[in-house]
């Protein structure tokens, strides 16, 4: 089972190596990187490349680790007991299986995505240590122990919004997805837009990297955002000369696809004002 670039996903050699190392070690792969660099999509492409089903667990600020195992619906059981429903005699009827349970009981190996783990509270990763380590957990309401029939390929993503506990990090294989260099980004663009004009692409990517490297930028545009921008440029059938920045604001054409907050827009307007004042 070896992962590499697919027809729709360009994986740099170090990323492919990280995925394959995690599979070999049977450790969760912890993937960090800027938002929009393809962390979530990586799990989908790994599943497609290895021919495995994918189970996705998207984490929210309110998500608890226990929800990944199971939830006991005591309210429904109480209601059914009041209505005289015969189902109340079996507590298993009120156990809702979580994503980890689904992955553990799958008939074959699966890819389990735990997406944006850093959104949850700080105790969330620690609460999953034993389950991810031993690949089993106990259901207290029924007295059963659920064990993984096949150890899933676990991919965990983080946007680095908060530090993860050391005990959790020790159990993972770590990889940071760096922002692609111009050559790699050209390859990614070619996968998505094989018919793009090279002169337009060269001018657009030059502007894009200049924008990303602007000091003081609050949110640098990501891979997904440059793809959106290029799609707009192609839809407008623009030529390279049409991409000249507005001298009054220094903003690129259709900048709303790249800049996502008013502070960054204002930054370029200030830079344009300073440039005019120095003339």
Structure overview:
- With 279 residues, the protein is α/β, with parallel strands linked by helices.
- The chain has twelve helices and nine strands.
- The protein has helices spanning 13-25, 39-50, 65-69, 74-82, 99-105, 123-127, 129-134, 166-170, 182-192, 198-212, 223-235, 262-277; strands at 29-33, 54-58, 70-72, 95-97, 111-115, 136-139, 144-147, 153-158, 173-177.
- The termini are far apart.
- 27% of the residues are buried.
Mean pLDDT: 91
Overall 3D shape: elongated
Task: Assess the beta-strand content as a share of residues.
Answer: 5-15%
* Gyration radius, rounded: 24 Å
What share of residues is helical?
40-55%
What is the fold's blueprint, element by element?
Blueprint: H1 13-25, E1 29-33, H2 39-50, E2 54-58, H3 65-69, E3 70-72, H4 74-82, E4 95-97, H5 99-105, E5 111-115, H6 123-127, H7 129-134, E6 136-139, E7 144-147, E8 153-158, H8 166-170, E9 173-177, H9 182-192, H10 198-212, H11 223-235, H12 262-277
Parallel strand pairs: 1-8, 1-9, 2-5, 5-8
Antiparallel strand pairs: 3-4, 6-7
Tell me briefly what this model is:
The protein has 279 residues and is α/β, with parallel strands linked by helices.
């Amino acid at each position: 089972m070896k992962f590499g670039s697919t027809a729709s996903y360009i994986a740099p050699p170090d990323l492919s190596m990280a995925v394959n190392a995690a599979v070999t070690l049977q450790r969760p792969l912890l993937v960090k990187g800027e938002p929009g660099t393809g962390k979530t999509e990586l799990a989908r492409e790994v599943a497609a490349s290895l021919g495995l089903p994918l189970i996705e667990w998207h984490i929210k600020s309110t998500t608890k680790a226990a929800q990944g195992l199971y939830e006991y619906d005591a309210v429904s059981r109480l209601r059914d007991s009041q209505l005289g429903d015969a189902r109340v005699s079996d507590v298993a009827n009120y156990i809702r299986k979580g994503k980890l349970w689904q992955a553990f009981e799958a008939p074959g190996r699966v890819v389990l995505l735990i997406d944006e783990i850093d959104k949850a509270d700080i105790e969330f990763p620690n609460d999953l240590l034993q389950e991810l380590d031993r690949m089993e957990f106990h259901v207290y309401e029924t007295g059963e122990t659920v064990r993984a029939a096949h150890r899933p390929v676990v991919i965990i993503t983080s946007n680095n919004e908060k530090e993860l506990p050391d005990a959790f990090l020790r159990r993972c294989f770590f990889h940071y997805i760096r922002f692609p260099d111009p050559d790699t980004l050209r390859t990614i663009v070619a996968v998505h837009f094989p018919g793009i004009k090279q002169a337009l692409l060269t001018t657009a990517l030059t502007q894009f990297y200049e924008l990303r490297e602007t000091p003081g930028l609050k949110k640098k545009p990501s891979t997904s955002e440059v793809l959106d921008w290029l799609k707009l440029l192609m839809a407008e059938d623009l030529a390279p000369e049409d991409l000249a920045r507005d001298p009054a604001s220094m903003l690129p054409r259709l900048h709303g696809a790249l800049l996502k907050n008013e502070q960054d827009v204002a930054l370029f307007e200030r830079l344009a004002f300073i440039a005019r004042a120095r003339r």
